[in-house]
Amino acid sequence: SLCKQIYKPKNGVITSKDSIEYHGIVEIKSSPLKIIAGEDLKPGSSGILKLKFDNALFHNGSGLRGILCELIRFENKLRIIGHFEQLL
How far apart are CA 69 and CA 14, in angstroms? Predict the structure, then answer.
């Protein structure tokens, strides 16, 4: 059987009000990012967020699609938060 575990943020929601630095992974590149605006997301839900990437990530004209993750460097942890798709 397939086990699916949903990421549970500390305050119960992922929000632009948090100062957490997430990472976006697109194909083989990654970039630190911040959530700067948008809806508050509860585990298992979806919504529209505005992301600001520190480094440029490129796509083929169809928009960025990738994985959103939290990288905790000093604990050697990588948590997959979800996925994203750019709205053009």
Answer: 12
Joined together, the tokens standing for residue 46 give 């979806």
The Cα-based distances of 12 to 28, 42, 69, 73 in angstroms read 30, 6, 16, 22
The per-residue pLDDT string of the chain (88 residues; one tens digit each, 9 = 90 and over) reads 455 556 677 777 888 888 788 888 888 788 999 989 998 888 778 889 898 999 888 877 788 888 888 887 788 888 888 888 888 7
d(CA 72, CA 88): 31
62: left (phi over 0), alpha (psi -120 to 50) or beta: alpha
What 3-state class would DSSP assign to 51?
strand
C-alpha R_g of the chain = 13
